[in-house]
Amino acid sequence: FESLYNEALNHNSDLVCSNRQRICPKTNLTLSYCELIKIDILNSEEKVSYIFSNELDLMVCGKLIKKSLMIDNYLFFQNIYFEDMYIAPKIYFYAKNISFINKITYNWIYREDSTSNRFSMKHAIGIGGLLIDWTNFLIKENIYEIFEKDMLKKFLFWLYWAEERANKFIIKIEEKNKV
């Protein structure tokens, strides 16, 4: 994280983003790679539309967040599934200066049996709560009417993802019950 820290110091950044990759633990091969973040857009008037676009990843791993950004805006990680998606839009929104280093600082080890690859009622509750949380956030900032469609598109993207996971989960249960 030294490179993230140095970037924050050199550019007085509230948030420093970097790349991450998903790795298969058996083969050590890269399964996916996080796309470059469009810093010019995040530091512009168009940032909210970009935050809720499918172009921007809402994971907070591989990022360095200035402590005062969290404290001054009463931001905290909730003890809920998808906590990154609850807090990332707010972090991006409140950050006055965002930097990016084109370096992989986070390796996500992809495991078939991980929480990220399952679906449970906790996942459903987490996804369902996003709509309420994001809506309340946009209302609080007096920008709901402007960005409602962008926010709903992002929510529907994650709702569809949840539906796919739930269907795979149901199929596994049905196959297990046949045995």
Topology:
Elements: H1 2-11, E1 15-23, E2 30-33, H2 39-42, H3 47-51, E3 63-65, H4 67-72, H5 83-94, E4 98-109, H6 121-140, H7 144-178
Parallel strand pairs: 1-4
Antiparallel strand pairs: 1-2, 1-3
Can you characterise this structure?
There is one protein chain. The chain is α+β, with helices and mostly antiparallel strands and 179 residues long. The chain is built from 7 helices and 4 strands, in the order αββααβααβαα. The protein has helices at residues 2-11, 39-42, 47-51, 67-72, 83-94, 121-140, 144-178, and strands at 15-23, 30-33, 63-65, 98-109. Strands 1, 2, 3 and 4 form a 4-stranded mixed sheet that branches. A hairpin with a 6-residue loop joins strand 1 and strand 2. Helix 5 (83-94) runs parallel beside helix 6 and helix 6 (121-140) packs antiparallel against helix 7 (144-178). The longest helix has 35 residues, at 144-178.
Order of helices and strands: HEEHHEHHEHH
Q: Give the helix/strand class.
A: alpha+beta
Number of helices: 7
Distance between the termini: 48 Å
Main pleated-sheet profile:
4 strands, mixed
In percent terms, what proportion of residues is strand? 15-25%
Mean pLDDT across the residues is 89
